[in-house]
Amino acid sequence: MTLKHTGFAALLGLLAASVSLPAFAQPQSAPSSGVVLQNTVTGETLDTSQGKEGGRDTAGVKKFLETGENIYLEDKSCLRNGQSLFATSCSGCHGHLAEGKLGPGLNDNYWTYPSNTEDKGLFSTIFGGANGMMGPHNENLNPDEILQVVTWVRHLYTGPAKDAVWLSAEQKKAYKPYKEGETFSKDEKGQCKPLE
Ligand code: HEC
What we know:
Elements lengths: L2 H27 L29 H9 L8 H14 L1 H4 L24 H10 L14 H13 L13 H6 L22
Bound molecules: heme C.
Heme C binds next to helix 4, helix 5 and helix 6.
């Protein structure tokens, strides 16, 4: 074999290697098993296919169920929806500003269940309920709506930034405690379509 041929063979080898790379990479790019959501009180695994139809194929829910990350945080279109869903499903017991009423306050840094400091914990409490009057809400809210409520509850927070576990370091720097009086318009731009 001449040197020229060797070079050519090496080049072919390289090409073959790069062509076959995607095949090697495949096992890692297989769908991730995602986060495990557990009932806040019993620890039982929650099945997010159960309950109100729809709201399972949005980018927000997919990302959330895969990684536990909530990409709706501070998105005004999602806050608008979350505000309205919270008013109809939660504020009767938890208060208009989540300041606490029949149910505990959700706008401070005290949590009966510390799992609620993470969005997957808060989502699980809403989806599967907790004790007594805090029943499961998966029959009247679909997963996308639950994520919007989570987003609104986080927005209502008035405690210290250091305890806002759900915020990234950058979001903590920009954090301002909630003040009443904010309004959202029907055509807020963002990831969440207006509620029907
Ligand atoms: C019928 C009244 C009622 C409604 C409606 C209700 N809750 Fe509750 N909620 C309660 C009570 C009572 C508790 C305390 C239960 C416990 O400690 O297990 C509670 C507990 C919670 C907790 C746990 C708080 C902590 O400190 O760990 C969260 C989070 C929560 N509710 C969120 C919500 C959200 C969000 C909604 C609306 C989708 C909602 N709740 C609707 C009564 C209610």
